Amino acid sequence: MNRMLNDDLQLLNGNHAVAWGVRLAGPDVAPVYPITPQTPILEKLIAFQAEGKFDCDLLTPESEHSAMAAAVAASATGARVFTATSSQGLMLMHELLHYASGARMPIVMFNVNRTPAAPWGFWPDQTDSLSQRDTGWVQLYSEHPQESLDTVVQAFRIAEGCELPVMVNHDAFYVSHAVEPVSVPEAEAVRDFLPRRERSLWLDTGLGRSIGAPAGQEAWHASRREMDAAMARVEGLTREAGRLWGEATGRVYDVLEAYRMEGAQLAFVTMGSMAGTAREAVDALREAGLAAGLVRLRLFRPLPAEALRAALADIPVALVLDRNFSPGMGGIVHQELAAALYGHDGPRLHGFLAGVGGINVPVERLVALAREYRDAAPTHAPIWLE
Amino acid sequence: MLEIVILGRGGQGAQTAGNQLARALFDEGLFVQVFATYGGARRGTPVASSLRADTRPIRLRSDITRADALLCFDESLLNEAFLRRGREGALVVVNSAREAADFTVADRRIVPLDGRAIARRNDMGKVVNSALLGGFAAALGQPALESICAVIEQTAPAKVAQNLAACREAHALVAGQLEEMA
Known about the structure:
The complex is a heterodimer of chains A (386) and B (182).
Chain A: E1 9-13, H1 14-25, E2 29-31, H2 39-50, E3 57-59, H3 64-76, E4 82-86, H4 87-92, H5 94-102, E5 108-113, H6 127-130, E6 138-141, H7 145-162, E7 166-171, E8 178-183, H8 187-193, H9 217-249, E9 256-259, E10 266-270, H10 274-287, E11 292-297, E12 299-301, H11 305-312, E13 317-322, H12 332-341, E14 348-353, H13 363-373, E15 383-384
Parallel strand pairs in A: 2-3, 4-5, 5-7, 6-7, 10-11, 10-13, 13-14, 14-15
Antiparallel strand pairs in A: 1-8, 6-12, 9-11
Helix pairs in contact in A: 1-2, 1-7, 3-5, 7-9, 10-13
Chain B: E1 2-9, H1 14-27, E2 31-38, E3 46-54, E4 67-72, H2 80-83, E5 86-95, E6 108-113, H3 115-121, H4 129-140, H5 145-155, H6 160-181
Parallel strand pairs in B: 1-4, 4-5, 5-6
Antiparallel strand pairs in B: 1-3, 2-3
């Protein structure tokens, strides 16, 4: 058989791909607490360190709360900091997520999307990170192991460019444990892509400064205005990072991806691993004569509202696939998209709770949905997929 | 696209077998995707490894529900629900000392393989994955025995010669059975 693969590809699971990205990005400090299904990221970083290939203060505190506290403290000294978690661990960090963004620490965190308890579970579901959307962290969602490696490196550039923390997410098992061909970039290319930048504020015993001390109303108010201005720069920084990464590796990224949207009469909108299955559904529908397309949201916070409106302009109907659930409201991407489209001409929207709890969503189900809803009046209530 | 599901109990090596099989197919030039799912890493609970191989990059990220072939590490897991994950006519290799005629399963091609006996004969104790991989590759017709053996050589943590011998014995046994039937 002819070799169709490039010889520089190696077989890595999504979590090990992340660890490779982190190794190349070269953080100074990485406080990480293990949790299924994130643990292989930590295991691989420890293995790299044991081989003498990862020069980093790798700390293993007693909880995720302490891991984030250590991350904030280390970042405050000007260090480049990485951490990783999942589900319960992310939610245990909640208090300090606000602290990290408020103190403007450019920490990069990888979160493996997993169902929150109760009941206890280990399944792909994005409710864990989406429920942290108001904590002031930039959020990116990856579809596959290669993108996870590429995005964790880009995340450092984005974080350090706006001095806000960045959380990159991928789905449990479908990405975290999927072993696939992955291209690992050259260390030198990553060094050029990710130069060290001086921080606008850092702590040092010789400087006599503090960060996060009690502030009056005016100073607290000003801190949020400054965060707002920093968030406004994230979309541009994400585009720039995606373009420069493309120049270095041949793999270009943007805040969202439009797949076969030319002349589309219907669009799926989703994030993360579901996009892979949706691509197959789009191809099957086009083959059968229905011009379908896909908008895959990659940057979720800040929400690229203008880019979403542009991608969906002139599309009659959009089916939002949410692998998450906000009880009492529905799918979170559906809510956010509806808000972005309000007052603008846009497609008829239908929001589906698709794959909540990690249940399987096969191609045929998406094809059937497209046929059922292509001419339907817009629905406001969420629709559960069995 | 070739789709395979391997089912075992935690600790038996189903996940390792899936990864080794994927590597062998990848070494033969195919795009692969293999992922394990488990409900909490405890020895003895069911662990499934799902594998796709194709001549083009694999984008699907859903469960395998119509596999071309199933490999079952433990006869006690060979129930209706597992068999339904294979398509009609799917190959089912099961670790069992029983004969094919002892299995009354419609629309599936059952190939029993006594992995435990082969493992014991090759000083592998209860570790059956190299034997099952060899037999499974023979029944499926791919990857080539030498591709599997190359991966075992690179990845077996101990007893490399014994693992290879178990793999080769099982491969020869199943290949011989298939030849007899043909």
